[in-house]
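Entry 12.
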Amino acid sequence: MVRALVVTGFGINCEEEMAAAYRLAGAEASIVHLNALFQEKDSIHRYDILNFPGGFSFGDDIGSAKVLANKFKFKKMSGGRYFIDDIRQFLADDKYILGICNGFQALVKMGLLPNTQGNFEQEVTLTHNDSGKFEDRWVRCLIAPGNPTPFFSDPDLHQIDLPVRHGEGKLLIPDEKVKAAILAKKMNVLSYADENYAPTSAYPANPNGSDLNCAGLCDPTGHILGMMPHPEAYLSLYNHPAWPRKKRRNPGLSEDGQGLSVFRNIVRTVRKTRE
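Predicted 3D structure (tokens):
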């Protein structure tokens, strides 16, 4: 059985939806408070996929997920190891990490994304939306062809509708070398798109003004994915605000939500590695 660990605590609030997504995808999902990991009552090494859900960790008081990221980097566990060292070993064991919204922010500020140099130092940031307000609505996204991450490995899925719920979702890439590496290695795996599913920087189709119109970013290996939109909030067709129109136009349309594909893809990948 593929095992997914969904962390919670300190203001994370999308853990139940993420766990439900993995269960629907055929995995075993466990929700574990971060303190239980720090106290070594459980271990990330018992799992195949480590997940950082959305929420408002520590109230986003000094920037979204900055306090949470520092806790991951500098927290000593009860055995004396730093939590970030466990994450390094987890990745060295060819396992996978997913961060959504606040989780994406934490991965960026920990230095796990994009990690173009492989040194786990922060290279980019996620900051306030250009609109200056919290964006809570659905957006269209385009999946980059030939991207390296198994989370978006479905060959038949090229575009996806998902909800966003964030106030600090603008990806800033200040270093041109980092930007060039992201483009060269196809790490910009998900882009905000217009009504024709073409990448766009125009508001409101692009809800935050991200560099590269980025809605989702992976590391060079594809084992780490961060994304601002919420796939765990689109597990059923009936989550979509336009589902009646979609169903009338295509009566045979699957009742699964497009977001479920992200979880099915990674569960399928992990299973294959065990064959």
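Annotation: Residues 208 and 225 are 19 Å apart (CA to CA). The longest strand covers residues 135-143.
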